[in-house]
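Standup notes
- DV: blocked on the single-chain target, sequence here:
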Amino acid sequence: MKTLYGIQYLRAIAALAVVLFHAAERSGENFAIGAAGVDVFFVVSGFIMMVISHNRQQTPASFLRERILRIVPSYWIVTSIMVFGGALGLFPNLVLDLPHLIGSYFFLPVPSPNGGALWPVLVQGWTLNYEMFFYLAFAATLLLPEGRRLAALALLFGLLVATGLMIDAPGEPLLFYTQPILLEFLAGAVIGRLWLGGQVPRTETGLMLIAGAVLAFAAIYLTNMDFSTAICAPLAIALVLGVLALEKGEALPPLPGLAYLGDASYSIYLWHTLAISVVLKIGLALSLPAPLIAWIGALAGTLLGILCYEGLERPLQHFIKHRRLVIRRPRRQPAE
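- DV (later): unblocked, structure below
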């Protein structure tokens, strides 16, 4: 699969939006719309999985193994830092218990002892619980002929969301897997199918979709409007579809810096809150203005993510890829 730079740009923008959201939230500022970066991530994830599965012949086991090796190592390292830091008293507000720790390491929505919410020790890891669930569901569809996979995924997620609308069990793990946010993965998969069939809109339509989505996100931010999946999902879908229309029309400008941040987006997403926490403590001690703390925190979180991408994620993934190639390489037969 060739690099789709528009998708890389979106990954970078989504990660930076989430960083700004957390930096602003922790310093008392308002950039709640940055949380919509998660919606963009989920649509992009559905798209990528659909396109990858078309270009590679994979079994469910090989698909899951590849996803686990991509997601788990870095996530477990960050989670372990949080756990050890909490055990040593470095995070005084972090309460640890065994069921929650197990859920945190194995992507299960276990109620947190820190208030009861269904988030792991690394709070932003709640999105990875959804990612892993999506990977499991998508892996199951690989047992079917390619032409039936999207319909099967739509049926499963449709039934889950419909079930969620009929039950009332706030805070329960069952409700976690029946949220409408699941449909964002499905929407991304539909866009992936359109892309593979050459059915994405023309460049002009793509520009309108992007402009409409950006203006709508800006309006939500400027008016402090309450927003939800029902509002953000269509905007995220429009943004992804619009960018892909520009990609198809070769109308995207080359932005190497943004593409690089797309490569580093996973590490930025995982690590940024650690840097923000440090900046917040220093900023409050120095009585810095809240907006300045937020911006410094966002910059520090992004830089920490980049450092961890270069110093941890890339070497880890290179090692894993190399080991897999060595294991797969057939042994040479001795000469007779």
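- Follow-up: Residues 78 and 175 are 27 Å apart (CA to CA).
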